[in-house]
């Protein structure tokens, strides 16, 4: 697979030949003299800078925009936006959770008054999910603060939990906020969704602008429903080719981050298109967008299509309108990938861009395995893990293997959905036969650390291979999917 980004300061494409090996931990580039003929290997070109067009006297000028620019233009009631502009955006959904919610509420009350009301009680979604199943009094108090605030403000969407002994006794409790937002119908094409969590970008899978914000910004949104945002330029990633059965969307995003580095998309939108992306399920698209923040991205976005609309059919009754990048839209850079040639990847310590082939790490010994989080705790992630166990021919795990379903729905699926090719066995049955830990209560679990009694938390130095793994031999070797949340 080849990919590159070539910056152009003139309307003409530079005659440079850029080659990149798809399966090497060390990217290698070769530059040829600019006087030579243009090589067909050039696969990405930054759109040339053009002088500003003056408005026509006979009417408004229609200038091409990217998806992200269109969404922000509509939400700021502007006819056109360009990267770098600062605009006041109307927020469609604000999400917060038990870690950042109390701080955001405190700022809201300090700045708007103790008796102030939120701008719209039906556009605020509050989801306890991080430090839930713990005896830590301060962590428990955070949830109490959320509950008191929601009662005071009559918040419509508060997914509460009171009985910590049995999560199933709490019908309103969901689990990991990013997965719950999708499952409960809060993600819709064309909208602006902000959340007090860096992985709010997950919702970009639905063709919307979704990004994480801090407590101060969230406090302001609580009172006004608006936020000042700078329009990001867009990087476009075109992924084509039939996706091999042994690959997951996590491999795709690790390949991309390995290409552009952890800072390669800093304050940029990352737009994912191509036949491979179109073939992905919604959960896999969520994985793709979830990790754009690991490349510094402001947001990730996938164009809405029939897969999106089918997923939303029974989840929301709120009307929405999808937008798409114009054919002549200008992208800062474009990267192209032939996914049919990609191999399973890992991110070695201590960075998501420390990319390596899984087979290169077959001799790495590990102490434990963790399958879960907003990236790897969805239903399809557990089904994929179960298939690997089936393919192992009955091998047992050699290290403690922790399972943390993202939400109540995922937990139910783990115990009820038959795994294809298993003769009717569920994921939970397959995991039990392989010697894994019993699936835990749905939450963020050990992903963010948390109190010392948090399930699967490491309280001593260990080599933990997290998120979704076990994609090769079930021995005392393992593979790292990412050491970051």
Fold and architecture overview:
- The chain has 485 residues and is of the alpha/beta class.
- The chain folds into three domains: 46 residues, no CATH class; 278 residues, 2-Layer Sandwich (Aconitase, domain 3), CATH 3.30.499; 115 residues, Aconitase, domain 3.
- It is built from 13 helices and 16 strands.
- The strands form five sheets. The chain has a five-stranded parallel beta sheet with strand order 4-3-2-5-6.
- Helix 6 links the parallel strand 8 and strand 9.
- The chain is globular and about 60 Å long.
- This is Aconitase/3-isopropylmalate dehydratase large subunit alpha/beta/alpha domain-containing protein.
- It comes from Camellia sinensis var. sinensis (China tea).
- Keywords: Iron, Iron-sulfur, Lyase, Metal-binding.
What pattern of helices and strands is seen along the backbone? HEEHEHEHEEHEEHEHHEHEEEEHHEHHE
What best-fitting shape do the alpha-carbon axes yield?
A: globular
Could you please say which CATH topology of the largest domain applies here? Aconitase, domain 3
Number of domains: 3
By CATH, the architecture of the largest domain is named 2-Layer Sandwich
Distance between the termini: 28 Å
Average pLDDT level = 86
Strand order of the largest sheet: 4-3-2-5-6
Classify the secondary structure makeup into a structural class: alpha/beta
Largest sheet: 5 strands, parallel
> Residue share in helices?
25-40%
Characterize this entry briefly:
With 485 residues, the protein is an alpha/beta fold.
